[in-house]
Amino acid sequence: VGSSSLLTCPPNSNITMVAWKINPKIGGPCTLAYRPDKNKTHTTNCSDSMNWKFRTEQELALEIRRVGIAHEGNYTCEVAGKEGNFHKRYRLTVLVPPRLMLYCDGHGNPICEAAAGKPPAQISWVPEGNATHKEEGHDNGTVTVLSRFTICSTNMINATCIVSHPSGKQSKSIAC
Q1: What are 57-86's pLDDT values in tens digits?
Q2: Which residues are paired to 56 by β-bridges?
Q3: Dist. CA 11–CA 85, nearest whole Å
Q4: Average pLDDT, stretch 105-117?
Q5: To the nearest whole number, what is the mean pLDDT of the chain?
Q6: What mean pLDDT is predicted for residues 13-25?
């Protein structure tokens, strides 16, 4: 989320027309079309964050700037040329890194929260111990994972929460 993405079409030296057909999970379909013989583009129902990226005359791509959850969906590039028609399909899935918060509850137990991640984060603890996990889904498709670590020993000084997610790993330590 937040970065740019570049989706490429099949390269073809004798292109007569190229079209991107986009079916996002949220919102209606959109189309971007290009005719090289007239050097003309046409866009229907697409957001301003999506546009052509002309790398070479034979290699056309779709650039999505500031990728967000709303961009998730199916993307198909259709190329018409003298050698025939070709297409390439993409399924765009957006990763949202969770925000890590670590605090102590009223009983002196550490609470680790991986807020608003997509997909849901995995939480583990060092040292290993008894933990309960709870997930809360949000309307935008993100999930908050809450993990309560129960301290069985009174001589434990620090607990470290480790949050694993496809976007990366994070950790924080706390003494309650």
Answers
A1: 657 899 999 999 999 999 999 999 888 899
A2: none
A3: 11
A4: 93
A5: 90
A6: 90
Mean pLDDT of 31-47: 91
What the block records as the tokens of 158 is 């620090």
Residue found under tokens 């079916």:
23
| Beta-bridge partners for 149 | 131
Chain-centre distance for alpha carbon 176: 34
Question: Rounded distance, CA 116 to CA 48, Å?
Answer: 26
pTM for the full model?
Answer: 0.77
Task: State the burial class of residue 160 (Cβ atoms within 10 Å of its Cβ: 0-12, 13-18, 19+).
Answer: middle
Output the six-digit token pair for 147: 């993990």
Q: Name the CATH code of domain 99-175 (choices 3.40.50.12280, 3.40.190.10, 3.30.300.30, 2.60.40.10).
A: 2.60.40.10
Contact 77, 7 (CB under 8 A): yes
Contact status, residue 4 vs residue 63, Cβ threshold 8 Å? yes
Predicted local distance difference test score (pLDDT) of residue 56:
64
Amino acid at position 162, single letter: I
Token pair in block for residue 10: 């099949």
Amino acid (1-letter code) at residue 38: K
- Provide the sign of the torsion angle of the four alpha carbons 167, 63, 60, 77, taken in this order: positive
Please state the φ and ψ torsions of residue 137, each to the nearest 5 degrees: -85, 150
